[in-house]
Amino acid sequence: MRFCFLHAADLHIDSPLAGLGLKDEAVAERFARAGRRAVEALVDEAVAARAAFVVISGDIFDGDWKDVTTGLFFARALGRLDREGIPTFIVKGNHDADSLMSKSLPYPRSARLFASARAETHVIEPLRVALHGRSFSSRLVDGAFVASYPARREGWLNIGVLHTALDGSRGHASYAPCTIEDLRRFGYDYWALGHVHAAEIVARDPFIVYPGNIQGRSVKETGAKGAMRVSVEDGRIVDVTPVALDRARWAHETIDIADCADEAEALARIEARLGAVHALSEARPLAARVTLAGATPLHARLVARREALEEETRALAFRFADDFWVEQLKLATQAPPRSPAAAPSDALDVEALLREAASDPAFGATLAELATLVADRLPRSLRGDAPTDAPALARVAETARDLLLGELAEFGGEGAP
Amino acid sequence: MRIEELRFERYGHFTDRSLVFRNDARLHIVLGANEAGKTSALSAIGDLLFGFSKRTDYDFLHESKALRLGARLRLDDGATLAFRRRKGDKNTLLDEFDKPLPDDVLAPLLGAATRESFFVEYGLTARALRDGGQELLKAGGRLAETLAASSAQLAALSRLRARLDEEADALFGARKAGTKAFYVAAARFDDADRHLREATVTADALKAAEESLVEAQAAYEALRGDHERIGRDLAIRARAARTRLNLAQLDAHRAELARVADLPAVSAEEVARLRAAFDDGERLAAALAAAAAEDAADQAAIAALAVDEALLARDAEIQALRERLGAVRKAQSDLPRREGERRIAQEALTESARRLGLASFEALLTHLPSDPALAGAREIIDARRRAEERVKEASAQVEEARRQLREVEQDEGGGEHAADPEPFLRRFDAYSDIPGDADHLRRERAAHALEAKRLAEDAARLDPHPGALDELACRPLPERAEIEAARSLDAELADKEKRAFADIAAARGKLAEIEGEIERYSRGGGAATLQDLATARAARDAASAALGAHLDGEPQERRAAFGVLRDATRDIDATTDVLLQDADRATRLASARERLAGEQAQLKTLLDSEAALQERRAAATDAWQELWRASGFAPRAPAAMAQWLDRALDLLERRRRLEESRSVAAALEDKLAANSDALARLVTDLGGFVDSDTPIEALHKDAQARLSRLNKIWTQARERAVRRSHAEEDVARREATLAHSLKALEEARAHWPERMGAIGLGGEASVAQSEAALGVWRDVPMQRKEFEDQSRRIQRIEQDMADFAADVALLVDSAGPALAGQAPLAALEALAARLEAARGASARRDALREAVEKRAAARKALETTRAQAQGALDKGREALRLASAAAMGEPIAKLERRAALMQMIDDIARHFVQIGDGLDEAALRAEQAGLDPDLLSGEIERLTIEQAQLRDDIEQAVTARHEAEKRRDRLTAGNHAERAAQDRADAGADVLRVADRWLTRAAAARLAAQAIERHRAAVQDPLILRASALFSLATAGAFSGLCVDYDDSDAPTLAGRRPDDARTPVAGMSEGARDQLYLALRLALLELRRAEPLPFIGDDLLASFDEKRVACALTLLAEFGRGRQAIVFTHHRHVADIARETLGDAADVTIL
User: Fold this and answer.
1) Between chains, do A68 and B203 touch, taking CB under 8 Å as contact?
2) Is omega for the bond preceding B264 within 30 degrees of 0, making it cis?
3) Is B1098 helix (H, G, I), strand (E, B) or coil?
4) Which residues in chain B are closer than 8 Å to A76, comparing Cβ atoms?
5) Alpha-carbon Rg of chain A, whole angstroms?
6) A375: exposed, middle or buried (C-beta count within 10 Å: 0-12, 13-18, 19+)?
7) Neighbours of B268 (CB within 10 A)
8) pLDDT of residue B1081
């Protein structure tokens, strides 16, 4: 007997994408709608692939999201699966546990929500499939949570549906902590995990799989996003294939320009890389961050012209598509080290003067005052993002110094013509 | 580091060319005319030290990759470095033997300097020098900015700081402002945040919406229930109102029916049949009687009628004749008209015959020509006439052309000789400037005279009088800067004197005030002071000591000592009492005395300062007089003399310009004189006579007039030749046309007799005669046709009228002989009238006979029907048991009434179905039991009102339910909160971006300010010390140096110090002094460089300086050149000359 099912997680429906600064309303709308359209794509894929069922491993909603129509949208999506005869199995994740909005949504009968009080098992008799799962009752659950999962049901295809950060090594806080070995001990055939937003087949015997989130939401979540299509043959998993469902894509390209002789050469290299990344976007709206790196004599000039360069980079991206948006041009370049053979600095060495002034604690104090001044005027919810800690201020000081050096080198202090 | 030799091996237009800089010189002057390669040499120094740029402008002679420079440098430690620089990507530094040197071999020499910073800091142009002076002025004397301004890079940093401050200010400020980008973005974020809150559909909101929908539905259902109940009550009462009358009628009908219950049972059909038979019997009897009477009347009328049967028999014949009457009458009226038209046609033919000279119209018709003959005649006439016209016209044109040719031949001008003026015109063109130049010269001379007069007047107005301007130009006048300095010093002294006078007056006033205060406090008397108390205490201590010394002595001495001690103690007590009682006054007095002492000291200091000021004033006055001694003028006050100098210099400048203008005028005069002879020769060649006194303008005009006349004669001659040629061509052309026309005429005349014969004319007939005959013949065919048509018509009419008269006569003979003798028309009309009367009588008789026959048949039918009715009546009578059929009327009426009542009862019962809403009588009566009929209408009205009210309520409830439903649906559909959240995220990112931009700019501006301040702190003391010495040199001692002063806010400022120690702020310095200050600061700063010194390169640095200032600047550069190399490129030879004069061997002049 052959069948397949879809495994998705971390839908985070209606969670906004990171601020893009888009000017084109139509393109902004496409990005804003991408999350919901990805969910619709999941349903389309399930119907098209004639999936036997769909597993969703938590974090369907954002915990602090209050708009109940988001839940109704999801209920409608499940309703369509129900009409197509495709049941859905869902565990609630840490975000869902906090979500008041999703407490009483009108899910169809075929949508099975695993209880939070204890682990439970849902079976699909004709397919001889047993799904074991447990929802989060609160934001944080401990190691005992995983231990409460039931034992393998012999002669059946056993699927564990679990929202976990595993051992936390993937940069996520320790939610439902456990190790791969812990999971292996259960003897299940497939662990359908959720929580980590990067897709990963953690193990193949048994399959321990993160499908990743369904739609990238920031430049940290780049590349194709979607779900896993799991093929089963005679009670055995035979294939696990990622299916791209995202409806807008993120990319982050770091481009080394150390050997570029001038800005024109650097722009040509940026354009080539933008072309390459766009070719991989499968005609989706694409938001890309470009980070320039490398030790280059152009460094200070680039800092002085960063905003103008960002605009030029955006114009380059528009050559490929109207909805190819460069979210930001970041500079991680450095000036080449000063020649050790050079003479000691003196009063005419403006660069040395600026370096010394920038490392002066008095300037550090001035900078901290400036940062605090603007941070205090920020809307309350944004204050955490203001650069007020020491490393951030050190970066601002470096940027300020390089801005001055770049402006002096580029325009002699007179400003761009 | 000094450049000892710079070799252009292959560079620009140089090949193997060297510039050698003498090692013992303090200043190198490279003198090169424009295009000599000065710019190339400057660029070569950059390429040598920092490498070739990828693109170079100096490969126009040598191939780019072959470019090569070389140099020999003398380092600070005395060592020599020789190397060569080639163009390329790497290994561009080579030694003498073309072996690569390390790329960083020059790094210890160059330090952090780049090609750009080298030319910015170590290079200087005249323009940069002037801009630097302006920067100093802008710095407003503030030390940090002034010192920064002396470095090109720091000056740029200072400007950058100002710009960044401006940019930062536009982005953000501590005070909220709608124009700042940060607050705009923050407001957008707040809007987006609020919009998200509004767009968010919470579970509570959705639940509330659903509950309100349920409530609205319940309210609606309740109202619907009430509405149904009232509707039911209202229906019962309305039905009762509708059916009540019918029920009452039903009761009445039934009562009446009971009253005729004794009649025998006869079916309704039977009653109807009886009624019909009874009524028929009555009606038939009456009808039979009436028919008998009508028969009698008709028979009498038939007997009275008489009919003319014979006439009726000729009816068809008479009608046929009457139908022909219309045609006969029309023929009678047409005949005269037709005869008149035939006569007119005949007259026309007769007239045509006459015009052609024939005897009658019959002869005319006999000779009528055929159509081809007529056409042939028309054609030949046209041809002959056209040919004659063309011959006439051509003859006239030939004559006219010959006349014009004769005219042209006669007009041969005035017999003047025509010569080509072109060579003369070319010679004349060379003198086109002469009138303008001559006029210009005259105006210039007048202007010179006027300006000379004004100069003399303006000079006379100056005080002191400058004397003759030529002498004034030779007198040594003080420098403007020196006068300015004296004026500044004078102003400063005056200001200080004024302030000193005011301060002294104030101090004296204060002293007088304090003395008054002391006097006021002392006037209270017995005032004790702390001094008094101290004195008393000292006396007491002395008395106590004396008592102690006398304790072992005599009692008398002890007593005396004790008395002294007691008195002293009392004094202390008294003083203490006074102090305690008058402590305040004592304190004030003491204070006043202390202040008095202080003020006296202050006054003394002020008086000392005033004395010093007076000394400075005297010294300044002496210096002022001394300054002017050499000029020989007795100067007025410095401010006045500054103006005087400006005016005097202006006068000298005007005098210089006047002289220049005069020399230009003289040159112009020479030019005019040289041209005069040549112009005279031209006039002579043109046939004129030249007098040696003739002014050159008159010569020019004469030549111009003669040339103009010559040109005119030449043009007229050429025009005549052209006209004659045209006239001859015209005569030939016209004569050819005439010959052609004559030939055509001859041809026409040859065919003439033949064609004329065909239309009855002889060959001698003229064109006009033939045209007239042709015109007559053209109309004859039409006239003949008209005449023949009219003749045929008249004949036909006359025949028709004769036939009609014969037919009428025949009819009258047989049908009305009495009418014989009457005209046919009148006889026919009389017969017709008689026929019409006979027809009427016959028709009337036929109608009466038909009526009688029809009535007989009807009577027979009536008799039969009457017998049947009677049979039926007889049966009825028996059933009703009546004796006579005649008495049956009433019983039948009663039977009919009974049947009607029963029918009405049935109708009402049926009607109930309609008005009783389907209920039967029993149901209606049961439903209405208990209803008070009198209250019915009132209750209906009340219930109707209640029902209407309920309808309104239900309508509102429906609306409310709809609204609740819509609200619920709207919430379910959502408000695009996800888009609002995205907008909020975007707006947030925007705010952070603006904040980041601001922070970067504000931080950079602060960093720049701190760097500038650090620079000041680092260089201030040594820089000012060295710049002070250089500035003194640069101003030839007008300033003894520089000093640091402090402004009102205690900020350090830079000022120039005069030899008399007076201070001149930067703003108070002349423009030249500021330029020198800038140069001194720049050079002093370069000297501060700790690394290997680089040469200073001046590029036409002194272009705008006068000679005296050039000398000062060269001295300054030579002073710098003691420790560092100074190279000045210039194309002004005088700079090299002054350098040689001023510096002697210390100047190394190289010609490029």
Assistant:
1) yes
2) no
3) strand
4) none
5) 26
6) middle
7) 14
8) 87
Residues in chain B: 1152
What's the CA gap between B236 and B940, in Å, rounded? 9
DSSP character at residue B36: S
Does A365 score more than 70 pLDDT? yes
Does the distance separating the beta carbons of A345 and B112 come in below 8 Å? yes
**Tens of pLDDT along A369-387?**
999 999 999 999 898 888 8
Task: Tell me, yes or no, if the pTM score tops 0.90.
Answer: no
In chain B, what residues touch A20 (CB-CB under 8 Å)? 986, 989
CB environment B756-772: b (16+ within 10 A), e (fewer): bebbbbeeebeeeebee
Question: Tokens 């000062």 map to which residue?
Answer: B1112
Query: B992–A378: do the CB atoms touch at under 8 Å?
Result: yes
Compute φ and ψ for A279, nearest 5 degrees: -60, -25
| DSSP states along A38-94 | HHHHHHHHHHHTT-SEEEEES--B-TT---HHHHHHHHHHHHHHHHTT--EEEE--H
- Residues on chain B touching A379 (C-beta within 8 angstroms): 186, 189-190, 193, 988, 991
pLDDT in tens, B534-588: 888 888 888 888 888 888 778 888 888 888 888 888 888 887 877 777 767 767 7
DSSP states of B696-756: HHHHHHHHHHHHHHHHHHHHHHHHHHHHHHHHHHHHHHHHHHHHHHHHHHHHHHHHHHHHH
CA distance to partner chain B, nearest, from residue A237 (Å) = 37
Return the bridge partners of B14, or none.
Answer: B11
What are B773's two structure tokens? Answer: 């005959």
Determine the residue among A61, A68, A70, A104 to mutate to test chain B binding: the one whose Cβ has the most chain B Cβ atoms within 10 Å: A68
Q: Report the residue from B110, B202, B1086 with minimal CB separation from A66.
A: B202
- Partners of A367 on chain B (C-beta within 8 Å) are 1003, 1006
DSSP A415: -
pLDDT band at B165 (very low <50, low <70, confident <90, very high): very high
Q: Which residue has the higher pLDDT, A175 or A213?
A: A213
Q: Are B119 and B113 spatial neighbours (Cβ–Cβ below 8 Å)?
A: no
| Cα dihedral A179, A185, A186, A192 in deg (nearest 10) | 40
Query: Are A349 and B991 an interchain contact pair (Cβ–Cβ within 8 Å)?
Result: no
Q: How many residues does chain A have?
A: 417
Residue B481: its pLDDT value, please? 81
A415: pLDDT strictly greater than 50: no
Residue type, B1064: T
Nearest to A69 among B163, B977, B982 (CB): B977
| Res B415: pLDDT | 64
Q: Do B112 and A403 make contact, defined as CB atoms within 8 angstroms?
A: no
A347: confidence class by pLDDT, cuts 50, 70, 90: low
Nearest CA distance, B973 vs chain A (angstrom): 6
Token pair for residue B900?
């009607």
CA distance B304 to B193: 125
Torsion of CA A55, A57, A63, A69, to 10 degrees: -10
Average pLDDT of chain B, as a whole number: 85
ipTM, interface predicted TM-score of the complex: 0.88
Measured distance CA(B1137)–CA(A87) in Å, rounded: 104
Facing residue for B979 by CB, picked from A32, A352, A366: A32
SS3 B235: helix
Q: Is A70 on the interface with B (CB under 8 A)?
A: yes
Pairing of strands B123-125, B1096-1099: parallel
Nearest C-alpha neighbor of B427 from the set B207, B759, B661, B679? B679
Q: Which helix (H) or strand (E) holds B904?
A: helix B889-915
Contact with chain B for residue A101, Cβ under 8 A: yes
* Distance (Å, whole) CA A184 – CA A202: 12
